[in-house]
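Sorry to interrupt, but I need a hand with the structure work. Please put the record directly below this note.
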Amino acid sequence: MFEFLKKLFGIPSKKAGPPPSKKDFVGNVTHYYGKVHAAVIKVKNGPLSVGETIRIYGKHVDYTQKVTQMQVDHKAIQSAKSGQIIGLEVRAKLHENDAVYRVTEN
C-alpha cells in the first residue's frame, strides 16, 4: 500500500537503486529551501538544459525528476553552463552536498 501511495503522490524513495555513473555527474546541491521546494545547485559539469531528466542522489534521498525550469538571479534560463549557480524547483527534501546526475537513455 505504501509503495502505491509513494507513486501516486510522487514521494521520493530512499536508495532505490545503485549509485549513478560519475560520467553523468552535473553538480551538487548547495542549499535547499523547504518552504518553496527549491534547491540551489552549483553546476560543475554542464550544460544542463530544461527538459532533461536529473537524478538527485544523497545519503537520505534518491530522486528523479524532469527539469521544468531553472533560474539564475531570479531570471528564467533554458540552459546552465559549468560554473553557474542555479535555482531549481524540486519535490523532494534535499540536503547540502546531495549530488545531481543527468539521466541518460541506454
Notes: The two ends are 31 Å apart (CA to CA). Residues 14-102 form a domain with the Elongation Factor Tu (Ef-tu); domain 3 fold (CATH 2.40.30.10). The chain has one domain: 14-102.
